[in-house]
Amino acid sequence: MTPADLLDGALRRNAAAPLVTSYDDATGERVELSATTLANWVAKTANLLQQEFDVEAGRSVAVALPVHWQTAAVLLAVWACGATVLDSPAEDDGALADADVVLVAQDRLPAVEEVATGEVLGLSLHPLGLGMTGYSGSARDFALEVRGAGDRFVPWSPPDPAAPGLRAGGLELTLGGLTAAAQELATRLGLTDGDRVLVDEASAAEAGPVAWLLAPLAAGASLVLCRHPDPAGLAARAAAERVTATLGPEIDGIRALGRPA
Question: Which SUPFAM superfamilies does the record associate with it (predicted)?
């Protein structure tokens, strides 16, 4: 199995149910994606990466993005192509230097452009998927580029579970190792089918995509992602979104994953 199979599993379970709900308390945005909608974004992104940037097995794609619904789509798209994700923390732009392609949030573009040697795509992270504004550099605009990409993705070669899938600091996992790690972590954390997991930005950055994205998918859970979270409003949000577990924040009456009961 590879991460692409985890998204396929979500589609089979309930294609129309909310799978990723994304908040940004700095902008007031709330975006909700069903499994079908997320899969469409994954397909379009994968087609863009494969057709325009030759992303396939053996290629590396650096992802310098915060927790966000577009980040979920980008990560799953890279893995659908059979390529390797280089997960780049905000404090380490140098880790992007050797990537074939870099996808980066607009606010990090100036620093990334100084070190990146591959193609660079900038993401505005606009709630409606609109393009970048106030930018005049050489990076290509993800929102504009992805718009015309196809809605159905077929990789040039099926993703090989033994191929490299993630490099993050000293961690290296194959595509198959990603799904195995996600399944093992889901079991260890007690994630179950139907769980709704709230994840804040800092916790996602610290835990990495296996924990915040793949483990919930492996368990059959859905996600509530919170960027720039207002701590005072998290309890009300958790109630409104019917959250059953949290990764990071502690909210009275809701189990915190990875912490003793």
Answer: Acetyl-CoA synthetase-like
CATH superfamily of 3-256: ANL, N-terminal domain (3.40.50.12780)
| Crossing angle for the helix pair 3-14 and 35-53, to the nearest 10 degrees | 150
pLDDT over 90 percentage in the chain: 82
The span from the CA of 137 to the CA of 231, in Å, is: 35
Q: Which of 244, 242, 161, 169 is nearest to 209 (CA)?
A: 169
Q: What is the pTM of this model?
A: 0.95
Domain ranges of the chain: 3-256
Q: For every residue of 85-134, which 3-state class applies, written as one string? A: EEECCCCCHHHHCCCCEEEEEHHHHHHHHHHCCCEEEEECCCCCCCCCCC
d(CA 188, CA 49): 34
